[in-house]
Amino acid sequence: AEFNEDEGSPSKSSQSLGGARFEFGFNTECKDLYGVMMYHNNRLITPYVRVGIQLEANAKGVGVLGICDADFLVPTHNKQSFQDSPAYRNLLKKLAETLKVFWWDRVESQEQEEGSLAPKRKRPAKKKVPDVLWVQCEYPKCLKWRTLPTGTDMAALPQIWYCTMHPNPAIAQSNHAFPEEVYVDDNTVVEETKKRKLAWREERKQKKIAEEKKKEEEIQKLKELSEKQAAELQQRELAAQAAAQVAEEVAKRRQEEMRQEE
């Protein structure tokens, strides 16, 4: 999917609750499924919410998917929608405005450019193919989005997918700890994500060093304890030998005294 990332904030009265992060892209698998997937604390609350041009009786916005993280909104008790509020309506308005810009930039402007170059020849629309493949881990404590190698058959993936299924061993064997990648306008990984990965690798390295140091310290302690026990055993043996020698000398003196008395 190709994404255009934007950020929005709630109304001024709710700004202390935080902002919303949202992205738009094309559904390359089924264009009939479109709208905004609205999340709260990594939990999907309302799927396929159509906004702006997607509500018009035409083909505008068809096939466009949005992903919106709106932790500042308040879900209803059944966790299937959000409570209606000025912040919620302002967010829908911002989503509609961003979708309109996205649609113009990715579809309408290209159609106009193609029309001006060849007004009498209508070129067939190119099939949109994903330049970055994303899949979400379904493990409740993870829910991270992962990129997959180019050429991956998305249709062959299981409906429930986990990080352990990723072809990259660093991700598959990280026990869901590998940092999540982030979208930017040109579909590249932001510098922050790279830093997080480096920090994560450095943390693993330092943890391994600490574990090895701890093992060495434990081995040294066992060695010192063994040496101490050996020294104590040797001292006890020497003491026993000295006591036996003294007892032998005492016995000899008594025998000598008894002979003299006779």
UniProtKB/TrEMBL annotation:
Pfam families referenced in this protein's UniProt entry, alphabetically: Morc6_S5, zf-CW
Keywords recorded for this protein, A-Z: Coiled coil, Metal-binding, Zinc, Zinc-finger
Family annotation (Gene3D superfamilies): 3.30.40.100
Domain CW-type: 128-184
Transmembrane segments: none
MF-aspect GO terms: ATP hydrolysis activity; zinc ion binding
Alphabetized InterPro entries for the sequence: MORC_ATPase, Morc_S5, Znf_CW
GO terms under cellular component: nucleus
Cross-referenced PANTHER family: MORC S5 DOMAIN-CONTAINING PROTEIN, ZINC FINGER CW-TYPE COILED-COIL DOMAIN PROTEIN 3
Protein name: CW-type domain-containing protein
Organism per entry: Chloropicon laureae
